[in-house]
């Protein structure tokens, strides 16, 4: 039976995260995780098709070379921004003697999506409908698990409808087509991130998930196991980099490195580190110096702006006083030192850093799979497993990596040179031993040629190995001269 592998690709502003997992029933075993630089992408939306296609190709090709498989499809994330939210109520009359089935719930959800159409249907598209509650003639405010199986003559559902831009979705498909790849299912970003880093208990008790990326910051609020609110703001860690670049008068790449190496919030909490002086070199000379405490002040000013915007969104959700599990920070920006303390002081809530939970096993190249940056890619992989979306890879083409292909590439001139080389070596072996190289260097080559010829599939293939080795010997001798 052919292996079922899941491939998920997180299209980020600063990096592309790619996860490959082997699916076996309800279990998932990660066999590869890698991150490559991103370009042409901002806030999950493709801005430049060709640049994005190049970045996607590089990420996929690196994965293919590592696992020796061909990637045929992948699940990707929808853009984080812009997304608008609407409320919709749908109802239906039914046979009161029969039990409510899953199919009826799906029909009710589709009716809610049809009734709540986008304001501009030409440029907008309904992304997803999240059920908030269900009711019948006897009971109100039930979840989907409770309503299925009940008998009722009337069924009603309340939904949050999330709407995005058609162009943003189409540009993702266009970038994958430009890269010669297949883009599969697109998943709602808040659902995928929460799937990997939130526990069931947190989602039931009430929690706000703040995903802090380079280009956007998204906020989702959960209560009673249901996503009650989602919104996003169009700025993130890249603004911190730009502030450092402008204030310190350094290049963008250097500003990014300074942020990652010495970036911290709350300069008064840095203790001895605040007095440390960073020497910025140009060539062999020190061009300028920068105090860590001063760098921290620059970062803190921008971080306060991002955090306050996120806290405002949480307040707007109406669930700020119901978050018994506090706030979970994830995304690359959450790596910033003292950020958790900053959020706790400004919100008064418990705060933790969210990383992918122990819902899978690892075998292979999995460096970084437990970092905050991997939450989106890992979450999409887990969601794809839940919906049985697999078969994203096939075996690599047999011609790739087949040494027999090398023989077809040997030109007639090279064959003639190889035969002449063989004759010359035969004459030299019959003459007295006046060789320039030590015998210890020649003997292994001769033995290797013989063993390769014996192990080949027929005389032609064995002879081809000898010709190939002769060419390598010729090149080596020319280089030595």
Task: Report on this structure.
This protein is an alpha/beta fold and 481 residues long. Among the domains are: 84-167, Dna Ligase, domain 1 (2-Layer Sandwich), CATH 3.30.1490.110; 202-353, Nucleotidyltransferase, domain 5 (2-Layer Sandwich); 404-480, no CATH class. It has 15 helices and 20 strands. The protein has helices spanning 49-67, 102-115, 144-147, 166-178, 189-197, 200-205, 237-248, 252-262, 292-317, 339-347, 375-386, 404-408, 412-430, 439-455, 459-480; strands at residues 4-11, 15-24, 27-37, 41-42, 45-46, 69-71, 75-77, 84-93, 124-135, 154-165, 186-187, 207-212, 217-223, 226-233, 277-282, 285-291, 327-330, 351-353, 361-365, 393-395. The strands form six sheets. It has a six-stranded mixed β-sheet with strand order 11-7-1-2-3-19, with helices on both faces. A five-stranded mixed β-sheet has the order 14-13-12-17-18, sandwiched between helices. Strands 8-10-9 form a three-stranded antiparallel β-sheet. Helix 10 links the parallel strand 17 and strand 18. Helix 5 (189-197) crosses helix 11 (375-386), helix 7 (237-248) packs across helix 8 and helix 7 (237-248) runs antiparallel to helix 9 (292-317). The chain is globular, with a radius of gyration of 30 Å. Mean pLDDT is 84; it is low at 398-413 and 426-481.
